């Protein structure tokens, strides 16, 4: 299985490519990363005051600064579309929530529907139809330049 590196609001993520899959799938943990208004990822004191550390140590549990994460607007990243029957990663048909997800690849903005697959342990999977659209868009631009 191949991978594609995409950007969402300035943060890079790796999506898996699976030409056998018709639908795009998205994992709940990845969706929760952008669901900041309902589930705050980092808790700060009420007065938002913290000790300043002149030599901050890298904390793998908190890879992004809270200020940066709080500044991400989820309104233009994903939209709940509804529910649809789709084939999940384990090859079973299920009724899944569908989200339209926007991202950047090779300088182009794309937006595709993704089925929420609760069994998916990867960030997201791009299916055949979306992958073909991305390839055609990028190759068309390269041919024109």
Q: Overview of this structure, please?
A:
The chain has a 7-stranded mixed β-sheet. The chain has helices at 28-34, 66-71, 128-144; strands spanning 2-8, 11-17, 24-26, 78-87, 93-105, 108-116, 124-126. It is built from 3 helices and 7 strands, in the order E-E-E-H-H-E-E-E-E-H.
The chain-level structural class is alpha/beta
Q: Return Rg in Å.
A: 18 Å
Q: What is the element string, with H for helices and E for strands?
A: EEEHHEEEEH
Amount of helix: 10-25%
Number of strands: 7
Q: Mind describing the biggest β-sheet?
A: 7 strands, mixed
Unreliable spans are 36-58
**CA-CA gap between termini:** 30 Å
Number of helices: 3
Morphology:
globular
What secondary-structure arrangement, pairings included, does this model have?
Layout: E1 2-8, E2 11-17, E3 24-26, H1 28-34, H2 66-71, E4 78-87, E5 93-105, E6 108-116, E7 124-126, H3 128-144
Parallel strand pairs: 2-7, 3-6
Antiparallel strand pairs: 1-2, 3-7, 4-5, 5-6
Summary keywords:
single chain, 145 residues, alpha/beta, seven-stranded mixed β-sheet
Give a short overview.
The chain is built from three helices and seven strands, in the order E-E-E-H-H-E-E-E-E-H. The protein is an alpha/beta fold and 145 residues long. The two termini are 30 Å apart.
């Amino acid at each position: 299985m191949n991978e594609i590196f995409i950007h969402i609001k300035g943060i890079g993520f790796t999506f898996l490519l699976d030409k056998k899959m018709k639908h795009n799938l998205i994992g709940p943990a990845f969706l929760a990363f952008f669901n900041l208004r309902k589930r705050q990822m980092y808790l700060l004191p009420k007065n938002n005051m913290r000790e300043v550390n002149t030599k901050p140590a890298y904390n793998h549990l908190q890879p992004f600064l809270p200020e940066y994460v709080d500044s991400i607007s989820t309104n233009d990243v994903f939209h709940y579309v509804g529910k649809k029957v789709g084939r999940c990663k384990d090859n079973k048909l299920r009724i899944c929530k569908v989200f339209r997800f926007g991202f950047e690849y090779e300088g182009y903005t794309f937006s595709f529907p993704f089925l929420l697959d609760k069994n998916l342990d990867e960030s997201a999977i791009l299916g055949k139809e979306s992958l073909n659209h991305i390839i055609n868009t990028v190759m068309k631009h390269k041919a024109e330049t």
